[in-house]
Design goal:
The complex is a heterodimer of chains A (about 290) and B (about 350).
Chain A lengths: L1 H32 L6 H18 L11 H21 L7 H23 L8 H4 L3 E4 L2 E4 H23 L1 H11 L1 H6 L4 H23 L8 H17 L4 H21 L4 H15 L9
Antiparallel strand pairs in A: 1-2
Helix pairs in contact in A: 1-6, 1-9, 1-10, 1-11, 2-3, 2-4, 2-9, 2-10, 3-9, 6-7, 7-9, 10-11, 10-12, 11-12
Chain B lengths: L1 E2 L2 E2 L2 H16 L6 H27 L6 H19 L4 H23 L4 H21 L1 H4 L5 E2 L15 H29 L1 H11 L1 H6 L4 H27 L1 E2 L6 H14 L6 H19 L3 H14 L5 H12 L16 H11 L1
Antiparallel strand pairs in B: 1-2, 3-4
Helix pairs in contact in B: 2-7, 2-10, 2-11, 2-12, 3-4, 3-5, 3-10, 4-10, 7-8, 8-10, 11-12, 11-13
Classes of the chains: A mainly alpha (about 290), B mainly alpha (about 350).
Chain lengths: ~290, ~350
C-alpha cells in the first residue's frame, strides 16, 4: 500500500511538472502582457503533434539522439508562437480585455481544424522512445526510466526559468514590466521586445512539455483543451500572475488528480474542481494571488 | 407614446409590428426546410440573448453559457426518457428550474470576480458539465446522446402531421412566441431601475457600491436571468433537434454563442436573434462545402473582431442612417459598438 502511494506520488510529480510548464507560461503571459491566451493549450498540443510526427517518421541511430526531437518540436512551436505574437497579438495590446480573449478563442477554432488537416484525426503515439531507456526498480516496482528523464528535464528547465527571471537583467526588466508598464517604459525598457520574448519563452515552455509528454499520452485533439482547463484550474487555485502559486497549485492539482484516478476514476475532474471551489470560497483571489 | 413609462416611439411600435407579422406569415411563404433552419436560428438567438444581456449590461464575459444550454436540453431529454413526461409546458418548467439551480450555484462562485477572472472561472466551471455528461454515460448515454420524442403542446400531440410539418407549422410559432416574450422581458429589465443599476455596476463597481447598490447580489440576479434564458433555449433545442449530444456542453458551443451575438451586434436587443438566423443558415451552407467549418467559424470571429466590431446590424443601421435622416433618430445611441462608456451615456440620454 505504501509503495503504491509512493509510486502515485512519483507519477503525480511527473504530471505536476508538465502541468507547471504549461500553466507557468499561461501565467507569465498574463502577468507580463495582461493577455489571457486561451490558445496556450494548443501550443502544447502543437508541440506534441510535431514531436510525435518527427518521432514516428524519422529513424535516428543511436536512439538517444531522438531525445533532441522534442526540443526541435518546441523550437518549431516557439517560431509559430513568434508569428502569432507579432501578427495577431500586437495589434490588440491596448484593446479591452474581452477582445483579447475572443481573439484567442477564434484562434482555437482555427488551430483545431488546422491540426486536423495537417496531422489527421487519428491520435499519434510513438512508443519507441519511451521503451528505449528501459525501466528501473523503485520500491520493488518497475518504473519507466523515461518518466524520470522527463522529470529531470523539467526540473532543469524550471531552474533555468528561475535563474532567467530572478538573476538576469532581462528578468528584472520583465518583472518591472509586469509590475508597472508605464513606469518601465519611462525607464527606457523596450516593452515590445519584452512582450515578444515573454510570449516566445512561454510558448517554448508549453512546447517542451508537449514534446516530452507525447510518448506517455497520445497526441490527439483533446489534449489541448484538457491542458487548457487544467492550467485554468491551476491559475484559479494558485492565483493570477504568480509563478510560485502556479508551481504549488500544479503539485496540488496533480496529486489530487493521481489519487482520484487511483481511487475513483469517474470523478477525477470533479475532485480537482472541488479543491478549486474550496480554495475559491476561502480565498477568492487564489492562494498566492495579489489584492 | 409610453408603455410602463418606458421610452417607445410609435414609429418603432409600427416597425416591430410589421416585423412580427412578417415572421408569423413566414411558414406560408417559405418551404418547411428553410423554416426549420430558421427555427434553429431563433433558438440560438435566444441562447445568445442570455449571453448578450450579461455581457452588455453587466460587463461580464461568460465563456461558459453552453453549460446552461446543455442543462436545459438534457433536463428535457432525461425527464422525457426516465419519467415519460411529454407535456412541453412541464418540460420547460423543469429545464427552467434546473438551469436556474445551476446558474444559482455557478453564479454564487463567479460573481465575486470581474473581467478576466470571471471569464476563466465560467469557462472552467462550464467544462465540468461537459465532463459530467460524458462520464455518467450510464445515465446520459455519453457521446451517443439521447433521443427526444415529439412532446405535446397544450396537451395535443399533433400526430396527424409529419415531423417537418410539425416543426414548420406548429413548433415555429411556439419558439417565436417564447422569443418575443423573452425579448420583451429583457427589454423591460434593461430599461428598469434594476437594469440601470446593472449598467452602473458595469461602468464602475466601486461607485455603484457607494451609492448603495448591492453589487454582488445584483450581479447574481443578472447571472440567474441570463443562465435561465439560455436554459430555456436549450430545452427548445432538444425538442427541435430530436436528439441531444454532449457537444452542446463543450466550450466550442459557448464560443458559438459568443460569435452569434457579435455577429448580430451587441448594441441591439434584436442583434442576437439576427446573428442566430445568419449563423444557422451560414452553418448549413458551410456544412455542405467542407467538414472544417469550425476553421471558417474562427475566421469569421476574427473578421468581426477586427473589421466590424459593431456586428452586422450596426452596418445596416449605419447605411440606413446615412440615407434616410429620421428627425428623431438624432437621439439614437451612437453605434460605435464596443465602447460601454459611450453607450451608457447615450442610454441615459434616451430616458
Amino acid at each position: 500500500m505504501l509503495t503504491e502511494a509512493l509510486l502515485i506520488l512519483l507519477n503525480s510529480l511527473f504530471y505536476a511538472l508538465v502541468i507547471f510548464a504549461v500553466s507557468s507560461g499561461f501565467n507569465l503571459i498574463f502577468g507580463v502582457m495582461k493577455i489571457v491566451n486561451l490558445a496556450h493549450g494548443h501550443f502544447y498540443s502543437l508541440a506534441a503533434f510535431i514531436s510525435a510526427f518527427l518521432l514516428l517518421n524519422t529513424k535516428i541511430e543511436p536512439i538517444y539522439l531522438a531525445f533532441l526531437l522534442p526540443f526541435l518540436a518546441a523550437l518549431i512551436t516557439s517560431l509559430v508562437g513568434l508569428a502569432f505574437e507579432v501578427g495577431l497579438l500586437r495589434p490588440i495590446y491596448r484593446k479591452p480585455y474581452y477582445l483579447q480573449i475572443l481573439l484567442t478563442l477564434g484562434v482555437i477554432y482555427i488551430f483545431n481544424d488546422l491540426f486536423c488537416i495537417i496531422f489527421g484525426r487519428a491520435p499519434l503515439q510513438p512508443t519507441e522512445i519511451c521503451k528505449a531507456p528501459g525501466s528501473i526498480i523503485i520500491f520493488n516496482q518497475l518504473y519507466p526510466l523515461y518518466n524520470l528523464i522527463v522529470i529531470g528535464v523539467s526540473f532543469t528547465i524550471g531552474v533555468i526559468l528561475w535563474l532567467l527571471l530572478y538573476k538576469t537583467k532581462f528578468g528584472i526588466a520583465l518583472r518591472a514590466v509586469s509590475l508597472d508598464t508605464e513606469i518601465s517604459l519611462a525607464l527606457g525598457i523596450d516593452i515590445k521586445k519584452i512582450y515578444t520574448l515573454t510570449f516566445v519563452i512561454s510558448v517554448a515552455l508549453a512546447g517542451i512539455a508537449g514534446g516530452f509528454i507525447v510518448p506517455v499520452i497520445a497526441a490527439s485533439l483533446g489534449i489541448a483543451e484538457e491542458m487548457l482547463i487544467l492550467s485554468l484550474i491551476v491559475t484559479i487555485i494558485g492565483g493570477m500572475g504568480s509563478l510560485k502559486g502556479a508551481l504549488i497549485s500544479s503539485l496540488i492539482v496533480s496529486i489530487f488528480r493521481s489519487f482520484a484516478i487511483f481511487a475513483f476514476p469517474e470523478f477525477e475532474l470533479l475532485v480537482i474542481y472541488l479543491v478549486a471551489t474550496i480554495v475559491l470560497l476561502i480565498r477568492p483571489v487564489g492562494l498566492f494571488g495579489g489584492g | 407614446m409610453k408603455i410602463f413609462s418606458l421610452p417607445l416611439s410609435s414609429l418603432k411600435i409600427f416597425i416591430y409590428g410589421v416585423i412580427v407579422l412578417f415572421c408569423v406569415s413566414l411558414p406560408y411563404i417559405l418551404p418547411s426546410y428553410y423554416i426549420s433552419i430558421l427555427c434553429y436560428g431563433l433558438v440560438f438567438g435566444i441562447a445568445s440573448l442570455g449571453f448578450t444581456f450579461l455581457f452588455k449590461n453587466v460587463g461580464l464575459l461568460s465563456l461558459g453559457h453552453a453549460a446552461y444550454f446543455a442543462v436545459g436540453a438534457y433536463s428535457v431529454a432525461l425527464f422525457m426518457k426516465y419519467f415519460s413526461i411529454h407535456s412541453i409546458e412541464l418540460l420547460l418548467m423543469i429545464s427552467i428550474f434546473s438551469s436556474l439551480l445551476l446558474s444559482a450555484i455557478y453564479g454564487f462562485l463567479c460573481v465575486r470576480h470581474t473581467q478576466v477572472y470571471f471569464a476563466l472561472l465560467s469557462l472552467a466551471l462550464a467544462q465540468l458539465i461537459w465532463v459530467a455528461i460524458n462520464k455518467f454515460y450510464f445515465i446520459t448515454y455519453g457521446a451517443d446522446g439521447i433521443h427526444v420524442a415529439r412532446p405535446t403542446i397544450f396537451g395535443m400531440n399533433f400526430s396527424w402531421i409529419g415531423s417537418t410539418e410539425f416543426i414548420a407549422k406548429v413548433f415555429y410559432y411556439y419558439i417565436l412566441a417564447i422569443l418575443l416574450v423573452l425579448v420583451g422581458v429583457t427589454w423591460i429589465i434593461i430599461n428598469s431601475p434594476f437594469g440601470r443599476s446593472l449598467q452602473a455596476i458595469r461602468d464602475n463597481e466601486v461607485r455603484a457600491k457607494f451609492i448603495g447598490i448591492k453589487v454582488r447580489l445584483y450581479k447574481w440576479y443578472a447571472f440567474l436571468f441570463s443562465g435561465t434564458i439560455t436554459g430555456i433555449s436549450g430545452a427548445l433545442y432538444a425538442v427541435l433537434n430530436n436528439h441531444v449530444v454532449p457537444e452542446i456542453a463543450n466550450w466550442t458551443f459557448s464560443g458559438e454563442i459568443i460569435i452569434i451575438s457579435l455577429l448580430g451586434g451587441l448594441d441591439y436587443l434584436i442583434g442576437p436573434v439576427a446573428g442566430g438566423i445568419i449563423y444557422s443558415f451560414m452553418r448549413i451552407y458551410i456544412w455542405g462545402i467542407t467538414i472544417y467549418w469550425k476553421l471558417l467559424l474562427g475566421i469569421v470571429l476574427l473578421t468581426i473582431l477586427f473589421l466590424i466590431p459593431g456586428g452586422l446590424i450596426s452596418v445596416i443601421h449605419k447605411i440606413m442612417r446615412a440615407q434616410i435622416i429620421f428627425y428623431h433618430h438624432s437621439k439614437r445611441p451612437n453605434t460605435s459598438s464596443l465602447n460601454p462608456k459611450r453607450k451608457m451615456k447615450s442610454n441615459l440620454a434616451t430616458t
